[in-house]
């Protein structure tokens, strides 16, 4: 499992939290620019992480719920009778 994107995402979120506190307190132009920049970086890293997760999910077999399996078994039994 590649944790790089996850770790980078968490670091950026912590960074954003600090900058956002400054923005909320002072609402300066600079703090607003920094907050928006970090939000953009968070969005980019989140997209990367989303792709990683989708890749892993595509490789794994689909697992159906127990209720779904029971309904399939019941249908097969009904067909056999």
Model description:
The relative contact order is 0.10. Helix 1 (4-26) packs antiparallel against helix 2. The longest helix is centred in the middle third of the chain and has 31 residues, at 29-59. The model has no long low-confidence stretch (mean pLDDT 88). The chain has one domain. It is 85% helix and 0% strand. It has helices at 4-26, 29-59, 66-80. By secondary structure, it is mostly helical. The chain is elongated.
Task: Give the SSE map.
Blueprint: H1 4-26, H2 29-59, H3 66-80
Question: How do you describe this structure in short?
Answer:
The chain is mostly helical. It has one domain (4-80).
Strand content: under 5%
Helix proportion: over 70%
Uncertain runs with pLDDT below 50, 5 residues or more? none
Overall pLDDT confidence: 88
Class from secondary-structure proportions? mainly alpha
């Amino acid at each position: 499992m590649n944790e790089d994107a996850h770790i980078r995402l968490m670091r950026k979120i912590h960074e954003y939290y600090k900058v956002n506190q400054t923005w909320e307190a002072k609402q300066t132009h600079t703090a607003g620019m920094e907050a928006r920049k970090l939000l953009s970086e968070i969005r980019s890293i989140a997209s990367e992480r989303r792709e990683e997760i989708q890749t892993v999910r595509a490789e794994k077999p689909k697992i159906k719920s127990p209720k779904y399996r029971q309904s399939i078994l019941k249908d097969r039994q009904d067909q056999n009778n």
